[in-house]
Amino acid sequence: MMDKNFIKEINKRRTFAIISHPDAGKTTLTEKFLLYGGAIRLAGSVKSRKTQKHAVSDWMEIEKQRGISVTSSVMQFNYDGACINILDTPGHQDFSEDTYRTLTAADSAVMVIDCAKGVEPQTKKLFRVCKDRNIPIFTFINKLDRAGKDPFELMEEIEKVLGIQSYPMNWPIGTDGDFKGVYNRQKKRIELYQDGDHGQNIAKIVSKDLDDEGLADILGADYYQRLKDEVELLDMAGDDFDHDKVQNGELTPLFFGSAMTNFGVEPFLESFLKLTYKPEARNSNQGLIPPEDPNFSGFIFKIQANMNPAHRDRLAFIRICSGKFEKGMSVYNSRTGKKIRLAQPQQFLAQDREIVDTAYPGDIIGLHDPGLFKISDTLSEADPSLKYEKIPVFPPEHFSKIIPKNSMKRKQFLKGIQQLAEEGAIQVFKRPNIGIEEYIVGVVGVLQFQVLEYRLKNEYSVDIIMESMPHRYIRWIEMEGYDPDRFNATMDSMLVEDHEGNPAIILQNEWSIGKIEDRNTGVVLKDIYKKD
Ligand code: G4P
C-alpha cells in the first residue's frame, strides 16, 4: 500500500545544481535562497562577506584550512511548502571532475550569469553537461545593480554560445548602472528596485501595471518609453513560452536580478517552483524506476576523501532515486553483491551536517565509507542486480607524467594512483606499446595535482616526481579495427589508454581534433565518455 506521506514528501522535492563561472554570484544567490527558506537568518552582507568569504557553501573548514577544497556542497532548505536540495558546483581552483559528476545527481540547473560578462568559459562547460542530460535549465542574470550588457545582446549570446533559446520572464529597466527595476511579464507589473539595506533583509517589491500613467513619473519618460518598446518587441518577435521546451532543456527561462541586493530572488524562486516538477523516474538496467517505487535505491555520484584527516574517513554521496531511506537500513551494492548497513548517514542543512533518520527521492545523503563504494555504484534495498546508468567520464584538461621518487615504493605508488582513480579524484593513462612503464595523470582542475601529491605522501608514504605536459584536450577513440601503430595522429598529440584500456588521444591544440578526424576514416572522437 502506498504511504500517503511518502508520496507527499516526493512531490515536495526539488533538486537542482547551481552552475556559473567564478564570481558571477553563485554563492551570494545560494545564500539568498537559504535566507528566503529561513535556513539562515542573515545572508552574508557586503560587509561581512569580506571576512567570511563563501560563508555558507564551504562547510568543509578543514579542507579550506589546508587550501585543498575538493568538495561540492549540498544544502537543503524548505520554501513555500517545497523541500529544495541545492547542489553547489565549486568554481575557483577547486574545479574538478566531481563538479561535473554532481550535475548527474540534479534534476534541474540554475545558471548564474554576470550581466557585464555574459557567458563565460566555465558556465559553458557545465551547461554542456546539463544540456546533454536534457534537464530544465533556469538562468539568473545577476548584478543588475551595476552596468551590464544590453539584455537583447545577452539573449543572443546565450543562444549563440550555448545553443539554447531563452525566454525572459522579466525585463530590466536601466542597464547602464542606472537600474530601476524589472517588468514582470507573467504578472504584467513593474517591480521597482530599491537599494539601501545591502540585501540584509527580504526586499520589498512595489507593483505597478505597465499602462499605469504614473510610471513615466516614477521611471522617467525615456525609461518608460524604452521599456514599452522593448516589451512590445519581445511579445511580437520573441518565442512563446513553452513549458514542454523548458522541461526538455530546449528553452531557458531568463530572470534579471541582483543577488547581492536581493532583487528578483524571491520571484525567481516562485517561478522555479511553479515550472519544475518532483524527481522523475531514472533509467536503469531494469528500465525506468519511478521515485514512488517503495524499495529504496540510489547511486553514488561522488566520493569525498579526508573530510576529517584525523580519522581519514571518506564520505560517499548518494542521490536517492526511489523509496524511503531509513537510518540503519541494509542495502545491496550491485557491484559487489554485498549487503551493507547504512549506519551513520549524514545530511546537509545550510551550515550544518546532521545525522539523518529518513530521506526521500531527490535527497542527497552522505554515507560513511571505509572503502566500500565507487563512483556509479547502485545501492538497492530489494534488488541486488539493479544498476542505474553509469556516470560518464568527463574530459581532463591538464596532464602530467608522474613517477615515484623512490623506485622501491613502486607498489604503494601503483596502489595509491589506482585508488585515487577509482575514487574519481584523477584519471590515469598509459601510452600503448612504448615498452617502458610510464603513467600520465589527467585532471579537470590543476588543484587536483596538489591533492594527488598530498594524498600519495600522506596516505601511501610515496613522494612523486611530476612533469607537467602541454596537452589540454582529450578525445576517446571509437574506431573499427583501431590500431595505435597505424593511427594517423598529429605532431601535438599523443595516443594513450585509460586505466580500463580504452583508447584515447590527448592533444595540445583544439584544431588538431578536426585534422585527426579527417586523417582517420571512420574514427569517432568523444570528449565525454560513456561506458556500459
Ligand atoms: P561565485 O560564488 O559565483 O564565485 O560569486 P560570489 O557569490 O562569491 O560573488 C562574487 C562577487 O560578486 C562578490 O564580491 C559578491 O559580493 C559580488 N556580487 C554577487 N552578487 C552581486 C550583485 O547582485 N551585485 C553586485 N554588484 N555584486 C554582486 P567580492 O567583492 O568578490 O566579494 P565580497 O567582498 O563581496 O565578499
From TrEMBL:
The keyword GTP-binding applies. Keywords: Cytoplasm, GTP-binding, Nucleotide-binding, Protein biosynthesis. GO terms for cellular component: cytosol. GTP binds at residues 20-27, 88-92, 142-145. GO terms for molecular function: GTP binding; GTPase activity; translation release factor activity, codon nonspecific; translation release factor activity, codon specific. CDD domains: RF3, RF3_II. One of its GO terms (biological process) is regulation of translational termination. It is found in: Cytoplasm. Its main location: cytoplasm. Residues 11-280 form the Tr-type G domain. The keyword Metal-binding does not apply. Increases the formation of ribosomal termination complexes and stimulates activities of RF-1 and RF-2. It binds guanine nucleotides and has strong preference for UGA stop codons. It may interact directly with the ribosome. The stimulation of RF-1 and RF-2 is significantly reduced by GTP and GDP, but not by GMP. Belongs to the TRAFAC class translation factor GTPase superfamily. Classic translation factor GTPase family. PrfC subfamily. This is Peptide chain release factor 3.
